[in-house]
């Protein structure tokens, strides 16, 4: 075994070998993989080997496509067969809602370059003779689904990596990892210590244990998973291999395995495996099976596929594999641990392993994943993702694997966990809460006497009218909104202003002023969007997206100078309320002892003031795009502040509003938001943020790339569309058509109640970005005509917010 390497990868499952291969492909030959037993001896060996391209996140879907296409490459490099069977696959719909879902999946596939065909139940029955047509309403046919041999794939990656210069050491457990003062690592194994510049935790079933070597508690949990293989069916003899099928109503997936059928299920009452600690002596063992657990699914499946009921069972597999709370992988550098990387929680290693390996290798070698990996970035979880939280969420996710997640639906597990002091006050006013990073926040307020619950639908829900009332209250009088769920950071020190000038693309605001600022990476792509509020010469209050707190802190800490600047996340220390609407000034003015006129406290001002007896930071800014204020107080004052504003607002017709109304209001203003319009695949000029990029500053991260984007014009443009919708608005990820071509995708959408229009924001190719008409947005399978608007649909000159 080498004793010094650039990268030591811990774990020889399908994910570890993929990372290793991609490192060698990127030119790093001095890399080592250490495996406790034989390759594949975690979850990998007993996988059913299915591969699918569909994923809820389009960027992960792209990486799944990449993974499947990669198998031919590693077969060619290594000469080892991956045992590929590209049979094609069916996703079957048995309810009208599932047909809607299939239409939306097919639509999204259009701009992802996927060839998904919506077919009738009769056609599905022709392709898959074991199914009974009468139970289904239609299906999607995907020609590139199929299955592989887990051993073959793992060994093809491993051999390809070895050909590229990597070393693989088997039967050698890593027992500890210790960081040296220079940030490099001592990887301590049963066979001695290896000094490595970087460590990758690809420990799969043991990733938690490997993480604990460095005090890291990764939010992953293994679940038991069962599939079985039937005896040979005479019907299958001598015919072309049957294609894959997912029967969502039965919650069953199936495929042909030699002469029989393989059936697996994600049962509702899933069982976690080794919830605390994975035993090191767990080998290539199967868990005791319990088909009773999947009996409810089988009952439905046997009705839908009657021939299977009488088929004998040849083999049952029950094996564990790991999940993160949302079911997507955990990939990337760990905040606070230099040169420590994870590639774990990969629940579909044969669909995602290639993409995970590619992006992690890019990240290690180039310093950037080279793709939008937010959906699988480990930084999407914070300290709130404790082990019991993870346990509750993983079980929920597993049990819902084959259920539809509606955009109006809030999941119940692990709730309520974090609440702010006004939670009960809002609850008695019939707030419908959403869960954001385990924090409860009001989405909308149900009318008195009606249940505080939103129906699950792809169409406009029972919230529509109430949200409309909330929006009108803001536009016509005044609304009160809890904004504690924003991310907040305090930046202090003599070097604070210079540091912000370097890390942010905007001009740093003067004391008492606010500036909006994109944050760019070296490639000039958008990695953040902030509000910088300057409290004093050396103190800033920075507001951003809470879900990205760890992501931002990881970036901030990487760019901090050795001294002179301190950055501190303080999201739960400062809770927030926003008053917005034409009467908001009158409400606030009645509580403060100072002039709030637009001369004395103009748009984009920031100051500390006493609101009644409550000391607060007040910013004159509102994401509603109306006259409005954001007030930040320490948690102990939030109840008092809420009561003050509520009381003072009575004579002005104040009304609570929630996140759903805020979304509608910001769409009317064409305001983008992080993770929707602003993501690392877009540049600031593409995103319409050019006016916040101060290229006249001598230097800042991403400046050269941003200047180049400005000069060349980027590849696409963010546009605003007014859509002729019927009873469903865009939600995001729908294709945008121009004429008979798909020219882009929606990033977010909804109904603009004060302009009476259905609105979609989205990116389109530059070539059509200036067109006014000819657009259509595909909403649940229907192309709805859309008109591009040159400006925001509400108050395009921004007079209201400056009033
Ligand atoms: C029953 C079942 C069916 C499945 N079906 C499918 C499917 O159809 N399609 C699909 O895509 N996925 C499927 N999966 C999931 C798939 O198996 C996993 O996504 C994949 O195996 C994860 O691979 P991994 O490399 O992350 O982890 P693992 O396979 O668990 O590999 C981790 C490796 O790290 C090694 N290791 C851990 N700690 C150390 C240490 N300290 N020192 C040295 N080595 C260490 C382990 O020995 C192990 O070999 C299935 C899983 C199960 C259980």
**What compounds are bound to the protein?**
flavin-adenine dinucleotide
Query: Which blocks of ≥5 consecutive residues have pLDDT under 50?
Result: none
Largest sheet: 9 strands, mixed
Q: Which radius of gyration do the C-alpha atoms yield? A: 27 Å
Total beta strands = 38
Shape: globular
Strand content: 25-35%
Helix share, percent: 25-40%
Kindly name the structural category. alpha+beta
The number of helical runs is 19
SSE arrangement:
Elements: E1 4-10, H1 14-25, E2 31-34, E3 50-51, H2 58-78, E4 89-93, H3 96-111, E5 117-119, H4 121-127, E6 138-142, E7 146-147, H5 150-163, E8 167-169, E9 174-179, E10 185-189, E11 192-201, H6 207-212, E12 221-230, E13 244-247, E14 252-257, E15 260-265, E16 272-273, H7 295-304, E17 313-323, E18 330-333, E19 340-344, H8 349-366, H9 387-399, H10 423-428, E20 431-436, E21 439-445, H11 464-476, E22 478-482, E23 486-492, H12 496-503, E24 514-520, E25 526-536, E26 539-545, H13 549-559, E27 566-569, E28 574-580, H14 584-589, E29 606-611, E30 614-619, E31 628-634, H15 638-649, E32 654-656, H16 659-668, H17 703-712, E33 716-723, E34 735-738, E35 741-752, E36 757-765, H18 766-769, E37 775-779, E38 782-789, H19 799-802
Parallel strand pairs: 1-2, 1-11, 2-8, 4-13, 11-19, 22-32
Antiparallel strand pairs: 3-7, 4-6, 5-6, 9-10, 10-11, 12-15, 12-16, 12-17, 13-14, 14-15, 18-19, 20-21, 22-28, 23-26, 23-27, 24-25, 25-26, 28-31, 29-30, 30-31, 33-36, 33-38, 34-35, 34-37, 35-36, 37-38
Helix pairs in contact: 1-5, 1-8, 2-5, 2-8, 11-16
Bound molecules: flavin-adenine dinucleotide.
């Amino acid at each position: 075994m080498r004793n010094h390497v650039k990268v030591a990868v811990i774990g020889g499952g399908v994910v570890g070998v993929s990372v290793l291969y991609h490192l060698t492909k990127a030119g790093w030959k001095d890399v080592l993989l250490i495996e406790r037993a034989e390759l594949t001896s975690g979850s990998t060996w007993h996988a059913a080997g299915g591969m699918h391209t569909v994923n809820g996140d389009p960027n992960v879907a792209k990486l799944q496509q990449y993974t499947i296409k990669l198998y031919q490459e590693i077969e060619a490099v290594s000469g080892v067969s991956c045992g590929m069977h590209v049979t094609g696959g069916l996703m079957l719909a048995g309810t009208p809602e599932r047909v809607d879902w299939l239409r939306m999946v097919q639509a999204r596939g259009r701009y992802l370059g996927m060839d998904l065909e919506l077919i009738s139940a009769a056609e599905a029955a022709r392709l898959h003779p074991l199914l009974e047509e009468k139970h289904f309403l239609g299906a999607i046919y995907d020609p590139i689904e199929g299955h592989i041999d887990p051993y073959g794939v793992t060994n093809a990656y491993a051999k390809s990596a070895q050909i590229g210069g990597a070393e693989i050491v088997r039967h050698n457990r890593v027992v500890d990892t210790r960081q040296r003062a220079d940030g490099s690592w001592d990887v301590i194994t049963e066979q001695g210590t290896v000094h490595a510049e970087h460590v990758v935790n690809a420990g799969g079933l043991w990733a938690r244990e490997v993480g604990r070597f460095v005090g890291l508690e990764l939010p992953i949990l293994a679940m038991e998973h069962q599939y079985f293989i039937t005896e040979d069916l005479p019907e299958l003899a001598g015919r072309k291999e049957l294609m894959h099928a997912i029967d969502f109503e039965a919650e069953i997936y199936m495929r042909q395995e030699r002469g029989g059928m393989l059936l697996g299920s994600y049962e509702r009452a899933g069982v976690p495996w080794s919830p605390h600690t994975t035993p090191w002596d767990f080998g290539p063992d199967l868990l005791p099976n319990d088909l009773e657990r999947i009996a409810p699914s089988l009952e439905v499946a046997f009705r839908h596929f009657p021939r299977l009921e009488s088929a004998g069972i040849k083999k049952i597999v029950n094996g564990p594999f790991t999940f993160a709370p949302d079911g997507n992988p955990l990939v990337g550098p760990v905040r606070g641990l230099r040169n420590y990387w994870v590639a774990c929680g990969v629940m579909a290693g044969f669909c995602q392993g290639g993409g995970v390996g590619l992006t992690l290798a890019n990240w290690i070698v180039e310093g950037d994943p080279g793709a939008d990996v937010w959906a699988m970035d480990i930084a999407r979880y914070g300290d709130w993702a404790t082990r019991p939280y993870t346990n509750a969420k993983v079980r929920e996710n597993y049990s819902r694997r084959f259920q539809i997640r509606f955009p109006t639906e809030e999941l119940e597990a692990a709730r309520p966990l974090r609440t702010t002091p006004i939670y009960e006050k809002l609850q008695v006013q019939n707030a419908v809460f959403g869960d954001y990073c385990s924090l409860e926040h009001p989405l909308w307020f149900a009318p008195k006497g009606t249940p505080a619950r939103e129906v699950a639908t792809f169409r406009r829900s029972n919230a529509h009218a109430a949200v409309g009332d909330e929006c009108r209250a803001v536009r016509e009088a005044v609304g009160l909104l809890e904004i504690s769920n924003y991310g907040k950071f305090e930046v202090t020190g003599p070097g604070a202003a210079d540091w912000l000038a370097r890390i942010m693309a905007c001009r740093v605001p003067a004391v008492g002023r606010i500036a909006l600022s994109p944050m760019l990476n070296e490639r000039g792509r958008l990695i953040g969007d902030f509000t910088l509020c300057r409290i004093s010469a050396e103190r800033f209050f920075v507001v951003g997206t809470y879900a990205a707190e760890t992501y931002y802190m990881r970036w901030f800490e990487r760019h901090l100078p050795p001294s002179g600047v301190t950055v501190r996340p303080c999201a739960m220390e400062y809770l927030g309320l926003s008053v917005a609407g034409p009467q908001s000034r009158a409400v606030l003015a009645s509580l403060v002892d100072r002039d709030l006129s637009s001369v004395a406290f103009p748009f984009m001002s920031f100051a500390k003031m006493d609101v009644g007896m409550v000391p607060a930071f007040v910013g004159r800014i509102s994401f509603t795009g109306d006259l409005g204020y954001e007030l930040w107080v320490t948690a102990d004052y939030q109840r008092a502040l809420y009561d003050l504003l509520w009381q003072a607002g009575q004579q002005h017709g104040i009304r609570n509003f929630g996140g759903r109304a805020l979304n509608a209001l910001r769409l009317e203003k064409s305001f983008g938001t992080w993770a929707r319009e602003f993501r690392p695949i877009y540049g600031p000029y593409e995103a319409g943020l050019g006016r916040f990029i101060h290229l006249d500053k001598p230097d800042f991260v991403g400046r050269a790339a941003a200047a180049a984007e400005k000069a060349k014009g980027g590849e696409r443009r963010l546009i605003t569309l007014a859509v002729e919708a019927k009873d469903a608005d865009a939600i995001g990820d729908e294709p945008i058509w121009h004429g008979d071509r798909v020219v882009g995708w929606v990033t977010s959408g909804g109904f603009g109640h004060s302009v009476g229009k259905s609105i979609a924001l989205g990116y389109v190719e530059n070539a059509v970005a200036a067109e006014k008409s000819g657009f259509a947005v595909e909403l649940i399978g229907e192309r709805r005509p859309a008109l591009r608007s040159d400006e925001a649909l509400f108050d395009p000159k921004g007079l209201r917010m400056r009033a």
